[in-house]
From TrEMBL:
Pfam families: 5_3_exonuc, 5_3_exonuc_N. GO terms for molecular function: exonuclease activity. SUPFAM superfamilies: 5' to 3' exonuclease, C-terminal subdomain, PIN domain-like. 5'-3' exonuclease acting preferentially on double-stranded DNA. This is 5'-3' exonuclease. Keywords: DNA-binding, Exonuclease, Hydrolase, Nuclease. It comes from the Bacteria. The keyword Transferase does not apply. Residues 3-264 form the 5'-3' exonuclease domain.
Length: 287
């Protein structure tokens, strides 16, 4: 049987599920006073995707603390983010417990983001399996390569935008690696780094279509308009730093054997956990 592994961006599913119901102050607080809305929604996203794509193996990847090597590169990296809402806090550990109860391994590495773990595992696994990355984060599109697809969650449940290298090329006219250079120019306000001020997506794409890479653009800087040249020269250090921040690492120190990620849900263990959390109507709504 051919292998198909789904790498799950745990935080992306958890936060998406949390805000979908938190907006109406619905936190699914159980009799122990524990909110469960994010975990419930995460499971719903997960099971919907498993039904749709039928993976043989599943791994959940997580951020491990808020400080990573990117904070060593730029102290203010992600410093603009506020603390998670208090109803979210107990659900981080619960989410991992639920994955464990579903016999899905939790993988993360201190000092790195979940993206780096996903990048590394996808690069390893693609030699022996088809790889699907389940996320809501478009940054993951830089990980597209032969045998690797990215499944972006869209609004609601069970709605996806599936990306391959070819689709990215059709839509943006660039390769996955060029996405890193695109982000280096544009910066990322949610991660709190600036890129090159005054150069947005349209100009950056045009330059990348023409010259291929940041190096290609810098080699031909005399051919750019005076305004473009001035902006790039002013923010040249930030351009290089932004590229380093934007690039997902695919060589971090994790080695998780694919056979240990075989999807084999123990119905009894799952039922016990869902009942413990007091998930309502889970047989009807989740599985």
């Amino acid at each position: 049987m051919s292998k198909r592994v789904m790498l799950v961006d745990g935080m992306a599913l958890l936060f998406r599920a949390f805000y979908a119901t938190a907006v109406s102050n619905y936190y699914m607080i159980n009799s122990k006073g524990v909110p469960t809305n994010a975990v419930y929604g995460m499971v719903k996203h997960l099971f919907s995707a498993v039904r749709e794509y039928e993976p043989t193996h599943v791994v959940a990847c997580w951020d491990m603390g808020s400080k990573t090597f990117r904070n060593d590169m730029l102290e203010s990296y992600k410093a603009n983010r506020s603390a998670p809402p208090e109803e979210m806090v107990p659900q981080f550990d619960l989410a991992k417990e639920v994955m464990e109860a579903l016999h899905i391994p939790n993988v993360g590495l201190a000092g790195y983001e979940a993206d780096d773990c996903i990048g590394t595992l996808s690069h390893h696994y693609r030699e022996e399996a088809e790889v699907l990355i389940l996320t809501g984060d478009q940054d993951m599109l830089q990980l597209l390569e032969p045998n690797v697809s990215v499944v972006l969650l869209k609004k609601g449940y069970g709605n996806y935008a599936e990306y391959t290298e070819e689709r990215l090329k059709e839509e943006k006219g660039i390769t996955p690696k060029q996405l890193i250079d695109l982000k280096a120019f544009m910066g990322d306000s949610s991660d709190n780094y600036a890129g090159v001020k005054g150069i947005g997506e349209k100009t950056a794409l045009k330059l990348l279509h023409q010259y291929g890479t940041i190096e290609g653009i810098l080699e031909n800087i005399s051919a750019l308009t005076k305004a473009q040249r001035s902006k790039i020269e002013t923010d040249l250090d930030m351009l290089h730093l932004s590229r380093g921040l934007a690039a997902i690492r695919c060589n971090v120190e994790i080695d998780f054997p694919l056979e240990e990620a075989l999807l084999q849900v123990d119905e009894e263990k799952m039922a016990w956990k869902f009942n413990e959390l007091e998930f309502k109507n889970w047989r009807k709504n989740l599985i």
